[in-house]
Amino acid sequence: MATAPRPRTTTRDPEELGRLLTAWLAARLPGAKATNVSVPESNGMSSETLLFDIEHPEPPLAACALRLAADPSAYTIFPVYDMERQHRVMSLVGEHTELPVPRVQWLELDPGPLGAPFFVMERKDGRVPPDVMPYTYEGNWLHSASDAERAHLEEASITLLAKLHDQFPAEEAELLAEPGDGSPLRKHVEAQRTYYEWVVRDVARSPLIETAFERLEELWPAEEGEAVLNWGDARIGNIIYDGFEPAAVLDWEMASLAPREVDLGWTVYLHRFFQDLTVSFGQAGLPDFLRRDRIEARYGELTGHTPRNMDFYTLYAALRHAVVMLRVAYRQVHFGETTVPDDPKDVDKLILHHASLAAMVQGSYWD
């Protein structure tokens, strides 16, 4: 774990991107220059980020972050990157809620300037809990924090989710409804099935993922509850913190219309993913941080909505993450970073958390 290379995420040249960005900016804001262009170490596994400053007498933003749609030649994680949708969601969340969403500025839908659509937003300073190595692993700022500091960060982060679900107008969230028939939850799950079929097109399928879809049907909630705006990738690794207070909420590409528990299940499980991984490498991790029971209880206190059917929703989160992880693994195969097992029955081993997903399917994970 300590020596595993980060999977390749792009084939783009950062220096060339910087030159192209400067040319685009000068056309958009005459006399402006893009300076201090850099790529953050924690650049995402799906879309990419550039950081830069604007040199201009009256810049609309001084410190900027640019979110660029995925490199089409880098075996993309998702089939579609709708930058206009992300730009609009962030604008609306900033307008209707108290969440610290970075102010979005320019939206460029023409792929010509940088090779793909992108938007520019304000850049916020602070710290992000790392994914590689994960924050549950020793040697990073969050792991080194005191119990009280982590408790403060946990409380503030759950509060963000509660405010998003309570404050964002339901009618505005309709723009994120998935196509098709049925309830918002049914359409959300069917969209994940479609995504899975895209991931395994022309490659080996995953028996475990398909079994997990079957188990979802057996656990389907009798009462799905109201649908609200879901952040989508609701986890602390997508928050910039000033100290232990949220300063910016990032990464809205997975935003959707779904029951509250879809976001909650993702928050619970994505922490458990890192915690389980850390324990498997012989460390204690952070067993008392972001515990499922505490997340559910505090969310209920903040919103008056008691989370329901969380075994279903945490399984759904682990299933969704498995589809993403399978795509990441096949991208590593594409770039020669790993190989597909010879035995088709071992394909599930490409999924980093296959053991915990299997335990959830069997109903033994939370025992």
From TrEMBL:
Gene3D superfamilies cross-referenced by the UniProt entry: 3.90.1200.10, Phosphorylase Kinase, domain 1 (3.30.200.20)
Domain Aminoglycoside phosphotransferase: from-to ranges: 82-282
SUPFAM superfamilies on file: Protein kinase-like (PK-like)
InterPro entries: ACAD10_11_N, AGP_Transferase, Aminoglycoside_PTrfase, Kinase-like_dom_sf
Matches recorded under Pfam families: APH
Protein name per UniProt: Phosphotransferase family protein
Source organism: Streptomyces polyasparticus
